[in-house]
Specification:
This is RedB protein. This protein is α/β, with parallel strands linked by helices. The protein has six helices and five strands, in the order ααβαβαβαββα. The chain folds into two domains: 35 residues; 119 residues, Glutaredoxin, CATH 3.40.30.
Length: 208
Amino acid sequence: MPVPTAESSATATNPTVPLVAVAIWIAATTMGMLGLISYSNTPGESAEVPIVWPRGARVNLAAEGPTLLTFVHPKCPCSRATLAELARVLSRCASSPTVECLFYCPDDATADWADTDLWRSAAPLCSTTPIVDVAGEDAKEFGATTSGHVLLYSNAGQLRFSGGITPARAHEGDSVAAGALVDLLNGHPVDHAMFPVFGCPIHLGDVN
């Protein structure tokens, strides 16, 4: 027969001990979940995007049809959702725009630094091949500061859409922004065409 110890006796006579432990666990779990939700719903830095295609752009504006640009940090896990949503957007369009995906790469790194699973996911979506954006110069030219930023310009060089196309960081699914982009690409007017971007800062080295 087990011999009662002082610790077991205290627990037996004080039923609040396990309740306190459970309460602490629930509080810690709740705080962690709230922190994750807050992070997921926090957009990136606001960007000043040119309303007219910049003269210094190294990317060519399509002569016919709209041009869609997507700026990506190749090591941003949030951007997997962006590329998945981009594929869905394009699948819902009557005609495809010219699509360019620009991948940030530090100026002291080789081009294969950007060759990640995101690059390989973007390749089938692009009109040509993904573009290595050395030192983020193209992103700076277009005012993109957050990975996952999508821009749509008309063939006259007028900005038609700016923002992210995911409902939160690393989250796939329907969003007002993606719906607006589909409408614009199908020639329909929209009430709003400027949206926040959910992702990692573009001008960083390795990101988590």
